[in-house]
C-alpha cells in the first residue's frame, strides 16, 4: 500500500513539473514575439530617417528642405529684431505702440464682498458697470463679478433694486444687468484664471476675458482689504503679489495693450505696489494705514449706499460722454481728499509718459467703447485701389 502511495505522489510531482516547464516555454515564446514586434517598430521608425529616399520622393524632399530653410531664416530675423526691442526692468520685452494702438476695450469689475451689510460694494461695482456700458463697452466685453445677494435680500425694502444713493433716484440693477460670476463663483482662483486666460475648456464665452495685444483692459476691484491684500467673501484673500504675477502673465501672453487698475478698499494703494509689468496705470482710494470710508447711509435700509472714492469718480464720470476728450490726468486731478476722507494715490512709473502723457490719454481709452477696424490689402496687391468702390 505504501508503495502505491509513493508512486502516486511521484506521478503528481512529475505532472506539476511538466506544467511548470510548459508555462516557462509559453512565457519565452511570448517574450520572443514581443521583442520581435518592438524590433520591427524600431526598424520602421529608423529606416525613413536613415534612408529617406526610400520613402519620400525627391520633390517632397526638396519641399521639406525649403520649409526648414525658410524657418531658419525667419528665426534669425526674429532674433535680430528682438535685439532692437526695449527691455523693461523685469526683463519683459516692451511692445512699442502708437498713441491709439488699441482696437478694443475690456472691463473686469469685481465686488469681492458678500452679505447685506456690504451693500455698498455691490453698488460700487454696479455703478462702474453702468458707467462703462453707458460709454459704449458692450456686455460681451464686460466681466461682472458679484455676490449678487442684495437685490433680492429679504431686508431689501425695494426687492429687485440696488440704489446708488439714499434718495433712491437711480436704480443700478435694472433689467439689463448681466452678471457673469455670482455668489460662490467669485473667488480668488476665478479672478486669477480669468485674467491669465487659464479657465477650464468648458467655460462659456461670457466668463472669458478674450483680450489680446490690442486690448485696453480696465480692472476695477472693491471690498474689504488691508496692507497688500483684498478679502474675498470673508473666506480668502488675494495678495498684491498674486495680482502682480497675474498681470505679468497677461503681459507675457499678450492679453493687454494697456491696463488701467482701480481699487477701492482700505489701504488700497498697497495692492498695486508689487506690479512690475509695463503699460500699467493704477489708482487707489487710500494709502497704507488709511481706511476707505463709506458714504450716504439710508436710514430705512440701515446701510451705507456707496464708498466715497468710487462715488467721487462716478460723479465725475457723469460729465463724460462717448466723445469726451477728458483725460486720465483730468480724472486724477479731480480727487478731493477732504470729500473722500483719505489720500487717493496714482502709480505712473510703469507708464511711458514720453510716449503717452496722461493728460493726452482719454478716459474713454479705457472706460469707453472702441469701434476701430483694421483693413489691410489683399495678399499680392501692391497698393490700394484709388478708384472709389461703386
From TrEMBL:
Gene Ontology BP, a term: GPI anchor biosynthetic process
Parts of the chain that traverse the membrane: 26-51
Pathways involved: Glycolipid biosynthesis; glycosylphosphatidylinositol-anchor biosynthesis
Domain of life of the native organism: Eukaryota
A GO molecular function held by the record: GPI-anchor transamidase activity
Active site: 224, 266 (nucleophile)
PANTHER family in alphabetical order: GPI-ANCHOR TRANSAMIDASE (PTHR48067:SF1)
Family membership noted in the UniProt record: Belongs to the peptidase C13 family.
Protein name from the UniProt record: Probable gpi8-gpi-anchor transamidase
Organism (species): Ceraceosorus bombacis
Amino acid at each position: 500500500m505504501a508503495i502505491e502511495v509513493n508512486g502516486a505522489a511521484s506521478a503528481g510531482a512529475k505532472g506539476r513539473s511538466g506544467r511548470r516547464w510548459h508555462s516557462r516555454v509559453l512565457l519565452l515564446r511570448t517574450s520572443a514575439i514581443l521583442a520581435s514586434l518592438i524590433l520591427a517598430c524600431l526598424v520602421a521608425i529608423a529606416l525613413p530617417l536613415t534612408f529617406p529616399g526610400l520613402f519620400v520622393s525627391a520633390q517632397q524632399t526638396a519641399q521639406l528642405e525649403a520649409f526648414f530653410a525658410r524657418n531658419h531664416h525667419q528665426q534669425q530675423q526674429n532674433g535680430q529684431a528682438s535685439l532692437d526691442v526695449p527691455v523693461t526692468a523685469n526683463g519683459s520685452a516692451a511692445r512699442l505702440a502708437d498713441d491709439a494702438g488699441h482696437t478694443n476695450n475690456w472691463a473686469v469689475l469685481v465686488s469681492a464682498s458678500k452679505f447685506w451689510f456690504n451693500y455698498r460694494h455691490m453698488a460700487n461695482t454696479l455703478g462702474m458697470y453702468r458707467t462703462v456700458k453707458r460709454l459704449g463697452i458692450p456686455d460681451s466685453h464686460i466681466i461682472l463679478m458679484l455676490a449678487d445677494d442684495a437685490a433680492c435680500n429679504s431686508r431689501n425694502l425695494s426687492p429687485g433694486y440696488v440704489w446708488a444713493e439714499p434718495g433712491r433716484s437711480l436704480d443700478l440693477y435694472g433689467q439689463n444687468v448681466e452678471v457673469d460670476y455670482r455668489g460662490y463663483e467669485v473667488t480668488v482662483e476665478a479672478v486669477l484664471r480669468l485674467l491669465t486666460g487659464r479657465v477650464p475648456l468648458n467655460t462659456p464665452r461670457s466668463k472669458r476675458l478674450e483680450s489680446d495685444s490690442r486690448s485696453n483692459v480696465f480692472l476695477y476691484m472693491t471690498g474689504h482689504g488691508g496692507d497688500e491684500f483684498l478679502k474675498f467673501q470673508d473666506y480668502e484673500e488675494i495678495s498684491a503679489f498674486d495680482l502682480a504675477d497675474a498681470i505679468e502673465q497677461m503681459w507675457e501672453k499678450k492679453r493687454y495693450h494697456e491696463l488701467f487698475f482701480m481699487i477701492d478698499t482700505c489701504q488700497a494703494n498697497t495692492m498695486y505696489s508689487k506690479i512690475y509689468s509695463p503699460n500699467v496705470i493704477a489708482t487707489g482710494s487710500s494709502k497704507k494705514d488709511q481706511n476707505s470710508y463709506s458714504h450716504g447711509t439710508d436710514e430705512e435700509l440701515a446701510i451705507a449706499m456707496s464708498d466715497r472714492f468710487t462715488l467721487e469718480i462716478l460723479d465725475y464720470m457723469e460729465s463724460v460722454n462717448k466723445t469726451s476728450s477728458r483725460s486720465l490726468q483730468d480724472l486724477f486731478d479731480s480727487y478731493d481728499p477732504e470729500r473722500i476722507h483719505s489720500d487717493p494715490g496714482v502709480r505712473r512709473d510703469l507708464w511711458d509718459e514720453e510716449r503717452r502723457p496722461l493728460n493726452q490719454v482719454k478716459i474713454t481709452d479705457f472706460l469707453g467703447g472702441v469701434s476701430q477696424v483694421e483693413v489691410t490689402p489683399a495678399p499680392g496687391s501692391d497698393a490700394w485701389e484709388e478708384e472709389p468702390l461703386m
